[in-house]
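The step that takes the researchers longest sounds almost clerical: writing a folded protein down as plain text. The outcome of that step, for a single protein, is printed below.
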Amino acid sequence: MSKKNVSDFHYLIVGGTTKAATTSLYTYLVDHPAICGATYKETRFFLDTEYPLPSKYRFKGDISEYNDLFTHCQDDQIRLDTTPDYLYCSSALERIAEYLPHVKLIFSLREPISRLISWYRFARQISKLPQDMSFDQYVDQLFNYQDIGQKKLSKKPEQHWLALKQGCYATYLKKYIEQFGNNRIYTLFYEELATDPLNILRGICDFAEIENGFFDDYTFKVTNRTERMKNTELHQKYRALRFSVRKWTHNKPLIHKTFRTVRRTIEPLYLRLNTRTDEEIKVSPKTQSRLIEYYKKDVSDLQVLLGKQPPWSLFFKESSHG
Protein backbone atom coordinates (compact mmCIF):
# COMPACT_ATOMS: atom_id res chain seq x y z
CA MET A 1 0.00 0.00 0.00
CA SER A 2 1.40 3.38 -0.96
CA LYS A 3 2.07 5.94 1.75
CA LYS A 4 -0.63 8.57 2.04
CA ASN A 5 0.11 12.23 1.46
CA VAL A 6 -0.61 14.99 3.97
CA SER A 7 -3.44 16.19 1.73
CA ASP A 8 -5.25 12.85 1.99
CA PHE A 9 -6.27 13.26 5.62
CA HIS A 10 -8.98 15.24 7.38
CA TYR A 11 -7.88 17.89 9.86
CA LEU A 12 -9.40 19.97 12.62
CA ILE A 13 -7.30 23.02 13.45
CA VAL A 14 -7.89 25.19 16.50
CA GLY A 15 -6.33 28.31 15.05
CA GLY A 16 -6.98 30.93 17.72
CA THR A 17 -6.96 32.82 19.86
CA THR A 18 -4.33 32.78 22.57
CA LYS A 19 -5.52 32.95 26.20
CA ALA A 20 -8.96 31.61 25.23
CA ALA A 21 -8.96 28.08 26.69
CA THR A 22 -7.49 26.43 23.60
CA THR A 23 -5.49 24.01 25.80
CA SER A 24 -8.65 22.88 27.55
CA LEU A 25 -10.37 22.61 24.17
CA TYR A 26 -7.51 20.46 22.86
CA THR A 27 -7.74 18.20 25.93
CA TYR A 28 -11.46 17.67 25.42
CA LEU A 29 -11.26 17.04 21.68
CA VAL A 30 -8.28 14.70 21.78
CA ASP A 31 -10.20 12.40 24.13
CA HIS A 32 -12.81 11.80 21.42
CA PRO A 33 -12.06 8.47 19.69
CA ALA A 34 -12.68 9.98 16.24
CA ILE A 35 -9.93 12.55 16.79
CA CYS A 36 -6.17 12.13 17.04
CA GLY A 37 -4.07 15.01 18.35
CA ALA A 38 -0.65 15.90 17.04
CA THR A 39 2.24 14.85 19.25
CA TYR A 40 2.65 18.53 20.10
CA LYS A 41 -0.48 20.33 21.27
CA GLU A 42 0.81 23.40 19.42
CA THR A 43 2.63 22.15 16.35
CA ARG A 44 3.26 25.74 15.13
CA PHE A 45 4.17 24.04 11.85
CA PHE A 46 2.63 26.57 9.47
CA LEU A 47 3.87 29.72 11.23
CA ASP A 48 6.53 31.89 9.62
CA THR A 49 10.06 31.00 10.70
CA GLU A 50 10.44 34.49 12.18
CA TYR A 51 7.20 34.32 14.19
CA PRO A 52 8.24 34.87 17.85
CA LEU A 53 7.53 31.34 19.08
CA PRO A 54 9.93 28.37 19.15
CA SER A 55 9.07 25.01 17.59
CA LYS A 56 10.89 21.87 16.56
CA TYR A 57 8.89 21.50 13.36
CA ARG A 58 8.36 24.44 11.00
CA PHE A 59 7.41 24.39 7.34
CA LYS A 60 10.55 24.79 5.24
CA GLY A 61 9.15 23.65 1.91
CA ASP A 62 8.60 19.95 2.62
CA ILE A 63 4.95 19.46 3.60
CA SER A 64 5.51 15.72 4.17
CA GLU A 65 7.19 16.61 7.50
CA TYR A 66 3.73 17.45 8.83
CA ASN A 67 2.96 13.72 8.74
CA ASP A 68 5.72 13.18 11.32
CA LEU A 69 3.48 14.83 13.90
CA PHE A 70 0.70 12.27 13.38
CA THR A 71 2.53 8.93 12.97
CA HIS A 72 0.47 7.42 15.83
CA CYS A 73 -2.87 8.30 14.21
CA GLN A 74 -5.17 5.96 12.33
CA ASP A 75 -5.99 6.89 8.76
CA ASP A 76 -9.70 7.36 9.48
CA GLN A 77 -9.20 9.67 12.45
CA ILE A 78 -9.44 13.44 12.19
CA ARG A 79 -6.04 14.98 12.89
CA LEU A 80 -6.05 17.78 15.46
CA ASP A 81 -3.59 20.69 15.46
CA THR A 82 -4.09 23.36 18.13
CA THR A 83 -1.93 26.40 17.33
CA PRO A 84 -3.77 29.57 18.41
CA ASP A 85 -1.26 31.89 16.73
CA TYR A 86 -2.30 30.69 13.27
CA LEU A 87 -5.00 33.37 13.44
CA TYR A 88 -2.35 36.08 13.26
CA CYS A 89 -0.11 34.62 10.57
CA SER A 90 -1.12 35.19 6.94
CA SER A 91 1.46 32.66 5.75
CA ALA A 92 -0.14 30.02 7.94
CA LEU A 93 -3.51 30.77 6.35
CA GLU A 94 -2.05 30.42 2.86
CA ARG A 95 -0.20 27.18 3.65
CA ILE A 96 -3.18 25.55 5.34
CA ALA A 97 -5.36 26.46 2.35
CA GLU A 98 -2.79 25.11 -0.10
CA TYR A 99 -1.86 21.84 1.58
CA LEU A 100 -4.90 20.75 3.65
CA PRO A 101 -7.93 20.51 1.34
CA HIS A 102 -9.92 18.55 3.98
CA VAL A 103 -9.44 20.97 6.87
CA LYS A 104 -11.94 22.67 9.16
CA LEU A 105 -10.94 25.43 11.55
CA ILE A 106 -12.06 26.45 15.04
CA PHE A 107 -11.52 29.87 16.60
CA SER A 108 -12.16 30.52 20.29
CA LEU A 109 -12.54 34.25 20.99
CA ARG A 110 -12.40 35.98 24.36
CA GLU A 111 -13.51 39.43 25.49
CA PRO A 112 -10.37 41.36 24.46
CA ILE A 113 -9.72 43.27 27.70
CA SER A 114 -10.05 40.13 29.84
CA ARG A 115 -7.75 38.39 27.39
CA LEU A 116 -5.21 41.20 27.73
CA ILE A 117 -5.34 40.88 31.52
CA SER A 118 -4.67 37.16 31.13
CA TRP A 119 -1.66 37.94 28.94
CA TYR A 120 -0.40 40.32 31.62
CA ARG A 121 -0.74 37.61 34.28
CA PHE A 122 0.97 35.03 32.07
CA ALA A 123 3.87 37.31 31.09
CA ARG A 124 4.56 37.98 34.77
CA GLN A 125 4.18 34.29 35.59
CA ILE A 126 6.97 33.38 33.18
CA SER A 127 9.08 36.41 34.20
CA LYS A 128 8.73 38.28 30.92
CA LEU A 129 7.45 41.33 32.78
CA PRO A 130 8.72 42.81 36.06
CA GLN A 131 6.65 41.65 39.04
CA ASP A 132 6.09 45.26 40.07
CA MET A 133 4.77 46.39 36.67
CA SER A 134 1.09 47.30 36.96
CA PHE A 135 -1.48 46.44 34.32
CA ASP A 136 -1.86 50.15 33.52
CA GLN A 137 1.90 50.36 32.89
CA TYR A 138 1.76 47.26 30.70
CA VAL A 139 -1.02 48.80 28.59
CA ASP A 140 0.95 52.03 28.26
CA GLN A 141 3.92 50.01 26.99
CA LEU A 142 1.71 48.16 24.51
CA PHE A 143 0.42 51.41 23.02
CA ASN A 144 3.98 52.74 22.91
CA TYR A 145 5.10 49.68 20.94
CA GLN A 146 2.22 50.19 18.55
CA ASP A 147 3.00 53.89 18.12
CA ILE A 148 6.66 53.18 17.38
CA GLY A 149 5.71 50.68 14.70
CA GLN A 150 7.22 47.26 14.17
CA LYS A 151 9.49 48.39 11.31
CA LYS A 152 11.28 50.86 13.56
CA LEU A 153 11.97 48.31 16.31
CA SER A 154 15.48 46.83 16.43
CA LYS A 155 14.05 43.31 16.66
CA LYS A 156 10.67 41.64 16.39
CA PRO A 157 8.83 42.00 19.73
CA GLU A 158 8.09 38.95 21.83
CA GLN A 159 4.60 37.50 21.87
CA HIS A 160 3.33 39.36 24.95
CA TRP A 161 4.10 42.70 23.27
CA LEU A 162 1.80 41.77 20.38
CA ALA A 163 -1.19 41.10 22.63
CA LEU A 164 -2.92 44.47 22.15
CA LYS A 165 -3.49 44.33 18.39
CA GLN A 166 -4.10 40.59 18.48
CA GLY A 167 -7.31 41.29 20.37
CA CYS A 168 -8.73 42.81 17.17
CA TYR A 169 -10.21 39.49 16.04
CA ALA A 170 -12.34 40.66 13.12
CA THR A 171 -9.26 42.06 11.39
CA TYR A 172 -7.68 38.60 11.26
CA LEU A 173 -10.73 36.33 11.17
CA LYS A 174 -12.15 38.06 8.10
CA LYS A 175 -9.24 36.76 6.02
CA TYR A 176 -9.89 33.17 7.11
CA ILE A 177 -13.59 33.41 6.34
CA GLU A 178 -12.82 34.87 2.91
CA GLN A 179 -10.42 32.00 2.21
CA PHE A 180 -12.34 29.03 3.64
CA GLY A 181 -15.98 30.13 3.81
CA ASN A 182 -18.31 30.02 6.81
CA ASN A 183 -19.09 26.31 6.43
CA ARG A 184 -15.47 25.35 7.23
CA ILE A 185 -15.03 27.68 10.20
CA TYR A 186 -16.53 27.29 13.67
CA THR A 187 -16.32 30.31 15.95
CA LEU A 188 -17.03 30.05 19.66
CA PHE A 189 -16.69 32.34 22.64
CA TYR A 190 -14.44 31.53 25.57
CA GLU A 191 -17.09 32.77 27.99
CA GLU A 192 -19.63 30.25 26.67
CA LEU A 193 -17.09 27.43 26.67
CA ALA A 194 -16.41 28.19 30.35
CA THR A 195 -20.08 28.18 31.35
CA ASP A 196 -21.56 25.55 29.00
CA PRO A 197 -18.79 23.32 27.63
CA LEU A 198 -21.14 20.44 26.79
CA ASN A 199 -23.20 22.52 24.38
CA ILE A 200 -20.06 23.95 22.73
CA LEU A 201 -18.46 20.52 22.32
CA ARG A 202 -21.65 19.08 20.86
CA GLY A 203 -21.62 21.92 18.35
CA ILE A 204 -18.02 21.21 17.43
CA CYS A 205 -18.79 17.50 16.97
CA ASP A 206 -21.63 18.35 14.61
CA PHE A 207 -19.31 20.74 12.77
CA ALA A 208 -16.63 18.04 12.47
CA GLU A 209 -19.29 15.46 11.51
CA ILE A 210 -18.47 13.07 14.34
CA GLU A 211 -20.68 11.48 17.01
CA ASN A 212 -21.64 14.14 19.58
CA GLY A 213 -22.86 11.88 22.39
CA PHE A 214 -19.30 11.19 23.57
CA PHE A 215 -19.28 14.28 25.78
CA ASP A 216 -22.67 13.66 27.48
CA ASP A 217 -21.01 12.09 30.56
CA TYR A 218 -17.64 13.80 30.15
CA THR A 219 -15.93 15.66 33.00
CA PHE A 220 -14.77 19.02 31.74
CA LYS A 221 -11.68 20.24 33.59
CA VAL A 222 -9.83 23.51 32.99
CA THR A 223 -6.20 23.00 31.96
CA ASN A 224 -3.27 25.41 31.58
CA ARG A 225 -4.91 28.06 33.74
CA THR A 226 -2.75 31.17 34.21
CA GLU A 227 -1.67 31.18 37.86
CA ARG A 228 0.19 33.53 40.19
CA MET A 229 3.38 31.72 41.17
CA LYS A 230 5.10 31.76 44.57
CA ASN A 231 8.46 31.00 42.98
CA THR A 232 8.69 32.19 39.37
CA GLU A 233 12.24 30.82 38.94
CA LEU A 234 11.08 27.34 39.96
CA HIS A 235 8.18 27.63 37.52
CA GLN A 236 10.56 28.59 34.71
CA LYS A 237 12.59 25.43 35.43
CA TYR A 238 9.43 23.34 35.55
CA ARG A 239 8.27 24.68 32.18
CA ALA A 240 11.70 24.05 30.64
CA LEU A 241 11.68 20.47 31.95
CA ARG A 242 8.16 19.88 30.66
CA PHE A 243 9.03 21.17 27.19
CA SER A 244 12.25 19.11 27.08
CA VAL A 245 10.45 15.90 28.01
CA ARG A 246 7.69 16.61 25.49
CA LYS A 247 10.28 17.29 22.78
CA TRP A 248 11.97 13.97 23.51
CA THR A 249 8.76 11.90 23.77
CA HIS A 250 6.57 13.49 21.07
CA ASN A 251 7.38 10.81 18.45
CA LYS A 252 7.34 7.94 20.95
CA PRO A 253 3.59 7.34 21.34
CA LEU A 254 3.62 4.99 24.34
CA ILE A 255 6.11 7.07 26.33
CA HIS A 256 4.37 10.29 25.30
CA LYS A 257 0.98 8.98 26.45
CA THR A 258 2.48 7.84 29.76
CA PHE A 259 4.12 11.22 30.27
CA ARG A 260 0.83 12.97 29.53
CA THR A 261 -0.99 10.80 32.09
CA VAL A 262 1.69 11.41 34.72
CA ARG A 263 1.61 15.14 34.06
CA ARG A 264 -2.17 15.24 34.49
CA THR A 265 -1.68 13.60 37.92
CA ILE A 266 1.34 15.53 39.16
CA GLU A 267 0.76 19.03 37.78
CA PRO A 268 -2.30 19.86 39.94
CA LEU A 269 -0.24 18.98 43.04
CA TYR A 270 2.70 21.09 41.88
CA LEU A 271 0.43 24.05 41.13
CA ARG A 272 -1.20 23.71 44.54
CA LEU A 273 2.22 24.01 46.15
CA ASN A 274 3.61 26.80 43.96
CA THR A 275 0.67 29.13 43.39
CA ARG A 276 -0.60 32.02 45.43
CA THR A 277 -4.14 33.18 45.93
CA ASP A 278 -5.06 34.92 42.70
CA GLU A 279 -4.65 38.66 43.01
CA GLU A 280 -7.20 41.09 41.68
CA ILE A 281 -5.75 43.01 38.76
CA LYS A 282 -6.49 46.70 39.16
CA VAL A 283 -7.51 48.50 35.98
CA SER A 284 -7.88 52.26 36.20
CA PRO A 285 -11.00 53.86 34.66
CA LYS A 286 -8.69 55.69 32.25
CA THR A 287 -7.07 52.48 31.02
CA GLN A 288 -10.41 50.68 30.73
CA SER A 289 -11.91 53.53 28.71
CA ARG A 290 -8.82 53.63 26.53
CA LEU A 291 -9.09 49.91 25.77
CA ILE A 292 -12.83 49.99 25.17
CA GLU A 293 -12.34 52.80 22.69
CA TYR A 294 -9.49 50.91 21.01
CA TYR A 295 -11.45 47.67 20.57
CA LYS A 296 -14.92 49.17 19.99
CA LYS A 297 -14.86 49.24 16.20
CA ASP A 298 -13.37 45.76 15.85
CA VAL A 299 -15.97 44.28 18.20
CA SER A 300 -18.69 45.94 16.10
CA ASP A 301 -17.07 44.55 12.93
CA LEU A 302 -16.92 41.11 14.54
CA GLN A 303 -20.63 41.18 15.28
CA VAL A 304 -21.36 41.92 11.62
CA LEU A 305 -18.83 39.34 10.41
CA LEU A 306 -20.27 36.53 12.54
CA GLY A 307 -23.89 37.61 12.41
CA LYS A 308 -24.17 37.28 16.20
CA GLN A 309 -23.40 39.41 19.22
CA PRO A 310 -20.44 38.38 21.40
CA PRO A 311 -21.35 37.92 25.09
CA TRP A 312 -19.23 40.88 26.19
CA SER A 313 -21.11 43.33 28.41
CA LEU A 314 -18.26 45.87 28.27
CA PHE A 315 -19.16 46.50 24.64
CA PHE A 316 -22.87 45.71 24.56
CA LYS A 317 -25.75 46.53 26.86
CA GLU A 318 -27.02 43.52 28.76
CA SER A 319 -29.93 42.05 26.89
CA SER A 320 -32.96 40.72 28.73
CA HIS A 321 -33.63 37.02 28.50
CA GLY A 322 -37.21 35.92 28.21
Observations:
- Strands lie at 11-16, 35-37, 78-82, 103-109, 185-189.
- The chain has one domain: 7-228+277-306.
